[in-house]
Amino acid sequence: MKKYLCPLFLLLITLGSTIVFHSCTKVENSTIDPLATPETVKLFNNLMEVSKDHILFGHQDDPAYGIGWAYEPGMSDCKLTAGSYPAVYGWELGGLELGHKKNLDDVPFDTMRDLIVESYLRGGVTTISWHEYSPVSGKDSWADTKDTVNKTVEAIIPGGTHHEVYKEHLDKVAHFLNSLKTEDGTLVPVIFRPLHENTGSWFWWGEKHCSELDYKTLFQFTVQYLKEKHQLHHLLYCYSPSGDFNSEADYLKRYPGDEYVDILGFDQYRIKTSDKSGEGAILRMGVLADMATERNKLYAFSETGDYGLKTDNWFTEHLLPIINADEKTRGIAYVLVWRNEERQVDHFFVPYKGHEQIEDFKKFRDHKLILFEDDLPIDLYK
Ligand code: BMA
What we know:
The chain is α/β, with parallel strands linked by helices. It contains 10 helices and 14 strands.
């Protein structure tokens, strides 16, 4: 290639994957977006590489608040107990689509943005979920899902009565995602995980509330709209149903398709080595490993946790043996536990200052398989 072309950042499309030339370095782009930013492509490729030997550890809302503190710069329950920030940070958008200044868990979006940029500059990874309020009823994700069939999905896909409202919600999400920039204008890559736990029926996009086809249409529309209408090219998409599938065929039922997913995930709580839940999680990671390998994708344990850490040594005697069970489980890119919320009983998932399981959590971090932010062996964005 001629030298003068290098700074122009050329894109060449080959059979299914893209080669990106950035500062004269050839980089394979295997994400679903041929226009993915260099940092996003690097993140994907580096996670592919790092996940051969390691699993990144993640925590929801980690630097925002914990048990006994909130919004204090530099704080983190992971840092206070295990000695480092987590390598992956989970964030949540619910409420943004209604124009709220804070999300449904009271996290101000302006603070979230700052914390996301700061963690990116330290080398951490951002993943974002979205408990969207129904574009039809305006009620939260869980409303009208128990003894009734919630028809939101069919109303918001193209041609539906509330499609325009859904687009307005997505416009707000796109605007926020597009604001995640460093001072020099670099967009922070985000693992976006919309419409999660869809094979349960506790959210309006759950299994009971929409057909397989309508769910897939909604997921596909969401990706296309953000990518094409909003030209967002710093997203990796994660599909993460609930931990209730037992085979590839099960997983594929509502899977939106290889063109729409970068990371195959699943959510499963309360896993233990001592009962069937652990075996189930191992089996699921195996299913994802095979599917991901065949498709050249990443796979992740997108949410897990032991509510209120009631199980002794949960990190080293349950989570670790499960994710360390075999070659396939060890190939997951990251495992993320949920938030430390003191306003709910038993709603914390990593130990906090003074908690009895700190030693166990430190031992977990010390295992060579596990990476917190300070343990990352390479810059994931270079
Ligand atoms: C759930 C709980 C809720 C929260 C929601 C979105 O698992 O933590 O309290 O509102 O996630 O973060």
